[in-house]
Amino acid sequence: MNHTIYSAQHLHPWQRSTAGGKTMNRAIRSTRHTHPWSVQGLFLLAGLAMIAGCATPPVAAPKAIYESGLNTIRLEDDPDSSINSHPATLTPTEIGTLLRNVRVWERRNAIHRLFSGDADRTRAFRDEEIVLLAPHLAKGLAQATPAQRVRFRLNHATDQGEEETTAGWLSIRGNLLVLALNEVHDRHSPGPDISKYDRQMPNVPERSSAFDAAFEPEEYLAKVSSGGRLFAPDQQEELYIRYREALAALPVYPGLEQGRQPRP
User: Fold this and answer.
1) Could you tell me if residue 200 is inside a domain?
2) CB atoms within 10 A of CB 65
């Protein structure tokens, strides 16, 4: 028996039209079934993205403890630790006693020391700075959560028309008080926002004179960590102080609770 195969070309015109219409109807039905699911999928993904965004906890804004001019003391999130022993109770006198025994000195390389010797150690905090800082740092530690630390920045004009800045942060971790210093009596041109940038090349930050830091007596200093952010104009010296042992042995720094000027 002969089987004849008919192609679309052998079909009568009305048959070709009918066949084409059936094919088109199948394509339309396929599109109608597929397109709504694609749109629903897009809406579903968008909804999930919105829910995820709403579920992400917002970054807490720093809480001001003290503000006067360019002097600020505030609570901020601690990116390095979530196990701070906060809230913590230290009196202004205890904090003042600890700050008085922090020393800094110019960082010198071996050649510099060979010709000039070791740099003199000086106090990181003057009496008037301790009188200002200690009560507010005590208040900040008492209000801080385990995920926060107390940031401070002191800034004042000098007789030479420059500005002088001391900045860092403080936290308590177990039996250690962590004191970080970014700047210590650093003198620079006026202006809080552009003071750290070279005037000839404004995109290049000026690096402050490098310094070393320590706590005296050093037997109460558990560790010193030196570092800082990449490309940042400031360094960071972190002192880990066994503060309870130090406070039990050091002379008391009086007068801070009453706001009186302490003894020299």
Assistant:
1) no
2) 22
